[in-house]
Structure formats: C-alpha cells, structure tokens
Amino acid sequence: MVFIVLLVILVVVVLAIVSIYNRLVGLRVRSENAWSDIDVQLKRRADLVPNLVSTVKGYAAHERGTLDAVTQARTRAVAAQSAGPAQRAQAENELTAALRGLTVAVEAYPQLQASGGFRDLQAQLATIEEAVQNSRRYYNAVVRDLNTAISTIPSNMVAGPMGYHELEFFEAAAGERELPKVAF
Questions:
Q1: What pTM does this model have?
Q2: Burial of 168 (C-beta count, 10 Å sphere; 0-12/13-18/19+)
Q3: Which end of the chain is more exposed for a tag (fewer CB within 10 A), N or C?
Q4: By the 8 A CB rule, do 167 and 146 touch?
Q5: Nearest alpha carbon to residue 106 among 93, 91, 125, 129
Q6: Which residues fall within 8 angstroms of residue 87, CB to CB, at 6 or more apart?
Q7: Cα(121)–Cα(130) distance, rounded to whole angstroms?
Q8: How far apart are CA 79 and CA 68, in angstroms?
Q9: How far is CA 158 from the centre of its chain?
Q10: What stretches of 60-153 show up as alpha helix (H) in DSSP?
Q11: Terminal-residue alpha carbon distance, the chain
C-alpha cells in the first residue's frame, strides 16, 4: 500500500514538472514569435524610410541635416537587428526621433504635404508605427508572463535547472513617454 501511495505521489510530481516545463516552453516560443513580429514591422519601417527620404529630398533639398539624421538612424537600426531588446530598442527609438524631426521639417512644405506620393508614404509609415506599437505591447505581455512564471513558485524550481532566465522588455525611450507640447 505504501508503495502505491509513493508511486502515485511520484507520478503526480512528474506530471506537475512536465506541465510546468511545457508551459515555460510555450511562453518561450510565444516570446520568440512576438520578437519576430516586432522584427518584421521594424524591417518594414526600415524599408520604407529610403522612399520617404527620397520623396522629401525633391521638395526640401536644404533640409539636408534632417534627412542625414534619418538616414544615419535607419543605418544604425538595421545594424542593430541582431542585438537584444535593449540595444534594438535604443536604435529604433533613435530612428523614431529622427522620423519625428522629419515630420516637423515637412510641415514647412505645403506642396510636399499635398503630394499624393508623400501622403501615401506617410500613411504607410503611420500604419507601420501602429503595428510596431502593437507588436511591442504583445511582446512585453508575453515577456511579463514568462518572467512571472520563471520567478514564481513552483515553476521557478523547474525554470532554474532548465536554464530559463528572465527576458528584457522592449522599452520606449524617455522622450516617447513625454506628452507632446501643443501651443495655440
């Protein structure tokens, strides 16, 4: 009888460990998938930037510094594609800031704003930026779930020995947290 009780306890423990491990694997795979979604959106944005810069160059030739800043920020963002979330976020946040600078510079050119090609590119960029934000939110939610599972009992007893570690969140730059200033 004691043997059967010990066997049942052992089976329950093994099943619990397997269940916890499978949950951790599922969360890790979801986090990798979410990171891939961010990567796809950031690549779409990086591919769109040269077209946007080319369109603006035709109208705003003397905005060279702004255009160079966007081009350099894009180059750094593309170079950071294999980096981790913190380095990638920093490079992408620099590109976001440069694109904001470009948007401000463009406001001085009504003929550019009226251009159908520019409006299309601007709409595509807005769509991609929204997709990037959604991908970031999803990734961070999955990372939160994985990090919580890694840190809480009993799954931390399985996560540690299996080599699981907490992942970094994809965080916004300090400037993205500030509200824009609107003056009338």
A1: 0.72
A2: middle
A3: C
A4: yes
A5: 125
A6: 80
A7: 14
A8: 16
A9: 28
A10: 64-79, 85-106, 110-113, 116-151
A11: 83
Amino acid found at 162: M
Contact 125, 46 (CB under 8 A): no
pLDDT, tens digit, for every residue of 144-164?
Answer: 999 999 999 999 999 999 999
Q: For the segment 160-177, what is each residue's pLDDT rounded down to a tens digit?
A: 999 999 999 988 665 554
- Please give the backbone phi and psi of residue 31, each rounded to the nearest 5 degrees, phi first: -70, -40
Hey, what amino acid is at 135?
A: S
Instruction: Note every long-range contact of 27-33, with CB atoms under 8 Å and residues 24 or more positions apart, other chains counting.
Output: 27/142, 27/145, 27/146, 27/149, 28/146, 28/164, 30/142, 30/145, 30/146, 31/139, 31/142, 31/143, 31/146, 31/167
Q: Which two tokens stand for residue 150?
A: 């890694």
Residues with Cβ within 8 Å of residue 86, at least 6 apart in sequence: 168, 171
- Dig out the tokens for 111 from the structure: 């003929």
49-69 residues labelled b (16+ CB within 10 A) or e (exposed): beebbebbeebbeebeebbeb
Residues found in the chain: 184
